[in-house]
Amino acid sequence: MRPILAAALIAALPWAALAAPVWQTVSSEPGKRIELDRTSIKQLDGGKIQATGRLILEREIVDAKSGAGYRVIEATTRYDCANRNAATIKRVFKKDETEVLREEGLRVVELPVRSGTLDGKVLREVCRPGGESIKAVADKASEAAGQLKSANEALVKSESAKPAKKAVEKEKPSVLTRKAEDRRALAAAEVPAPAPRLSRKARAEAHAREVAQAAEAAERAHARVHWSYEGPGGPENWSRLDPENILCGTGRRQSPIDIHDGIRVDLEPIKFDYKPSYFRIVDNGHTVQAALGEGKITLTGKTYSLVQFHFHKPAEEKVNGRGFDMVAHLVHRADDGQLAVVAVLMEKGAENPFVQTLWNYLPLEKNVEVSPPSPAVDLNAFLPASRDYYAYMGSLTTPPCTEGVLWLVLRQPVQVSAEQVGIFSRLYPRNARPIQASSGRLIKESR
Ligand SMILES: [Zn+2]
């Protein structure tokens, strides 16, 4: 469709005028301008504000995905004024102020806002404390819309009238268009343009520096989000919180899994060598974890020492699609560093004396270990009567999701009372990583 025809068609539609945004310039500097659509400002629940802002660049950027150029990036974002966080939910790349090149919906990830960025400038505007109400500001902005529009047009005109002395923005496409899952694109566009008339090599180096800086900034922003089981730090984002967590996203032998279709063979019994011992217990912010004085298991000639054990609610692993109320993971390590985790599934039933002793000494504070001088506990008493098990290779179920972990899931669950589950639930209502793909892994099962 010819542009002129399209314009005529849009002009003929009455609703087109109603939906028109009112752009207000919130920041203007050589090469770029940041604007806020006053009509887009919406008050959300929880004191959050949603708004659409846009970055208008003087020079076009080449989009790596389509090869076409764009000069305008619009971002719709939810701002958490109190915590200075922002979650961008949609980004639109436009050739100019009207023609859309492409759109991308984003996974909602709340990140801290850095001042000077598009988000920083829009947040400052929409979260102004003690100022006029959002509505009043919007109304006023509407009145002043014509004025702003002409001012903006004048700015664009003066910018486009400038001689084409630098192709700086063209140097950035790979930063701006690389898998823009976070604010990297906008962050990169915020990097001050290097001085004009640089040699090709110098520009390439400057570009590389910008890429590195943008990546670092993004990593830093992510690093401030601690991993958890929900929200921005939740399992779907673990791999992006820290470069070390890469396997959480890309690993092919991750845990937990739904255990099914195992081959039934005569599995060598696990030789448990646990001794009654005093214990240490800590609420580490992710689970309740305990450690004993000594304990080890031996399997296929290899000995693994007990390092710690901890609990999840509900059980992370499933068996033939069936879930369990809780699970205990008994983490062991061999001298060569290999980990072996014995999983004891727990289902509601009778009170569990071993668990009760631990719960009696639950620390009142997180990250402060408690070491009661008595009583001693016996982990043997916690194990189920049958030691039949499933075996498969998997990973840690928490970041950094390290693989090469030997999983030994005991088939028979032990019982724990509803009250005991309830106590754990007060601390951790849900601390289980979702089921991961088995990807054709071999599972062995005692027959
Ligand atoms: Zn665990």
Give me the secondary-structure topology.
Layout: H1 3-12, H2 14-18, E1 23-29, E2 32-43, E3 48-62, E4 69-80, E5 85-94, E6 100-105, E7 111-112, H3 118-126, H4 134-143, H5 145-161, H6 173-177, H7 184-190, H8 200-223, H9 238-241, H10 246-250, E8 258-259, E9 263-265, E10 271-274, E11 279-283, E12 288-292, E13 295-299, E14 302-312, E15 318-319, E16 326-334, E17 339-348, H11 353-360, E18 389-395, E19 403-410, E20 414-416, H12 418-427, E21 444-446
The structure holds zinc ion (ZN).
Number of strands: 21
Strand content: 25-35%
Mean pLDDT: 79
Name the assembly state: single chain
Low-confidence stretches: 5-18, 130-141, 158-196
Count the DSSP helices. Answer: 12
Report the major sheet. 12 strands, mixed
Percent of residues in helices: 25-40%
